[in-house]
Amino acid sequence: MKRIFDFLSKFIQKNVDADHQAIATATDSNLSHMSAIAIDQMSTSSFGVNLICGFEGKRLLAYDDGVGVWSIGFGTTLYPNGIKVKKGDSCTESQAKAYMTHDLKRFETIVNNRVTVPLNQNQFDALVSLAYNIGATAFSQSTLVKKLNADDRHGAAQQFDVWINAGGKRMQGLVNRRQAEKSLFLK
Question: Record's Pfam families (predicted)?
Answer without folding.
Answer: Phage_lysozyme
